[in-house]
Amino acid sequence: MAVQGGYGGLGWLPRFRGLFSALIGVLGLLMVWWLGGMAVASSPNMFAFADFAPAPTFSRLWVMLESGEALAMTGPSLYRVGMGLFAAIIVGVPVGILIGRSPAMREITNIPFQFLRMISPLSWMPIAVMAFATWDGAIIFLIAVAAVWPIMFATAAGLRRIDPSWLKVARDLGARPLHLLWVVILPAISIDILTGVRLALGVAWVILVPAEYLGVTSGLGYAINDARDTLEYDRLAATVVIIGVIGFCLDYLCMAAIQRLNWVREDG
Amino acid sequence: MLVEAVGHTYRRGDGPVLNDVSFQVHPGEVLALIGRSGCGKSTLLHVLAGLARSTNGRVEIDGALVQGPSLRSVMMFQAPSLYPWMTVAQNAALGLRFSRRHAEIAARVPEVLRLVELEAYAGRNVQDLSGGQQQRVALARSLAPKPDLLLLDEPFSALDAFTRRSLQRDVRAIGAELGLTIVLVTHDIAEAVQMADRALFMTAHPGRIAADSEINLGDARDGASPEFRAEVARLNALYAEIAEVEAPSDPIHPIPLATKLKEASS
Ligand SMILES: Nc1ncnc2c1ncn2[C@@H]1O[C@H](COP(=O)(O)OP(=O)(O)OP(=O)(O)O)[C@@H](O)[C@H]1O
Ligand SMILES: [Mg+2]
User: In testing the pocket of ligand 1, which one of B17, B19, B37, B202 has its CB within 8 Å of the most ligand atoms?
Assistant: First the structure.
């Protein structure tokens, strides 16, 4: 294509702008990390932590990926987060629909729920440990306790999106209560539920690591603790990278699902 | 359809909204319900549809008591109220889906979409359609379960005049073709004359039938013809007569606006 005017040659730029910005951001982060590593290495007090720097971290990460260690520590964590989120959805969506549909329910539950929500999920730890036979059960419980609130409140808020005439038309066309739920209510609020799940996933992923510090001998949180105890700081840093990358990917998947399910037309 | 001594009082309302409403609709007849805003037309239609239980009286369709929503009668509202996450065809199939007549969907949905001239839009999202097209989808959705009775609550009042006129004509033609009984709620006398065989006039507080008048025009109704205009004029006069009788007992507008303005300026 011929160059048209002064900017013609750069016509492709806007399309790659997002990619460029992302690249600059990632390089910036690596830079800060690298500078931090240099500072640590040159300081006599902190010399022992030099393995936190990018170079040792990435070479260790490569080893961990090749040996399957990375996969082995990730599997149990994903299982716990998945089960915790599942439990949170099973509880949060129905209760959310209930408080979204019934003003009385909303008024009754408002104070108790706001109160419970503000309690750090980790403070349930001793109770969870007593109540559940396995550490896995306790961790899943803690994740579910953290994840249930965003899902519940997003679901309840989503019900405001429902046009009452959708329910009236459906009833007139012979819909039974289960039809109303599956054909009208759930599709109408699917985006809100998924937005709640996305927020919940963020919280759950944060809670996961401290929850895995206790009891269990598998998972990413355990790996962090274990690496600290054995003074393998490159392994510790590599595990941190794995946690970050997986968290990022899970969030991205949620976002993609939200975009796919979104039936609202912005350009109406 | 037989409507007998229907009365209705809302739990949170003040006083009865409907009182002793009785009339009969013959199979295949198009009946217009005309009355001022708030006189209880929508309430009556909800009762006829089985969406609301009246406090008094009874409604029968072909001798069967109306006790809840049924696909023998389907209602259409001012807003199309389509489900925006579904395609045109999925929307049209809902009545059959809810009543577990899945086997009929494949044949019936294209059929009703052809009736409303939207067969080319079957796979489109309903949000891509114009207001008039959306109302046509709502009509197709109402027709798909093969109801005997169509209840229309001002279904065209949100449309522009041109679209409204073509839909009025089409609904009357489709109704005649399918042998549907239609009850049409409207504010617009010309719309009643365009579509109906008979008009019922309602008064408010409480809502009751004040007049019942045949509309004696054939099937070819031309809005510009003298007969049509004469019919509109006649019904307008009838409506004015009723409104005059009704006005003094109206608690919302106790004094006609013109009188008020005169008093204010003097
Ligand atoms: N759910 C309700 N609770 C209490 N009162 C109601 C309720 N719905 C309607 N009303 C009252 O009943 C009366 C009749 O209402 P309705 O909707 O049937 O009128 P309408 O004739 O359809 O009016 P419009 O032409 O404006 O649609 C009104 O005075 C209204 O305020
Ligand atoms: Mg109304």
Answer: B17
Residue A223 belongs to what domain range?
A: 86-261
Query: Model's pTM, two decimal places?
Result: 0.84
Q: Let me know if residue A245 belongs to a domain.
A: yes
Element (H, E) at B210: strand B208-214
How many angstroms separate the CA of residue A174 from the nearest CA in chain B? 6
> Which residue in chain A is spatially nearest to B138 when comparing CA positions?
A169
How many domains does the structure of chain A reveal?
1
How would you list the strands of the sheet with B2-8, edge to edge? Answer: B18-24, B2-8, B56-61, B64-65
Helices vs strands, H then E, count in chain A = 11, 0
Q: Is B41 in the pocket of ligand 1 (CB under 6 A)?
A: yes
Going from the N-terminus, what domains does chain B have, and what CATH number goes with each? 2-72+148-224 (3.40.50.300), 81-146 (no CATH)
Residue A254 belongs to a domain with what CATH number?
Answer: 1.10.3720.10
pLDDT band at A9 (very low <50, low <70, confident <90, very high): low
pLDDT for residue B247 is more than 70? no
What mean pLDDT value characterizes chain A? 90
pLDDT given for residue A151 in this prediction: 97
Within-domain flag for A231 = yes
Taking the CA of B41 as reference, the closest ligand is 1
Query: Of all protein residues, whose CA lies closest to atom 24 belonging to ligand 1?
Result: B37
- C-alpha to C-alpha distance for A122 and A119, rounded to whole angstroms: 8
Tokens of B125: 């999202």
Residue A103 belongs to a domain: yes
B10 lines ligand 1 (CB under 6 A): yes
pLDDT score for B6: 83
Ligand 1 mutation pick, B19, B42, B47, B48, max ligand atoms within 8 A of CB: B42
Residue with tokens 């399309």: A15
Contact call for residues B1 and B60 (beta carbons, < 8 A): yes
A2-16, A20-34, B114-128: least confidently modelled range: A2-16
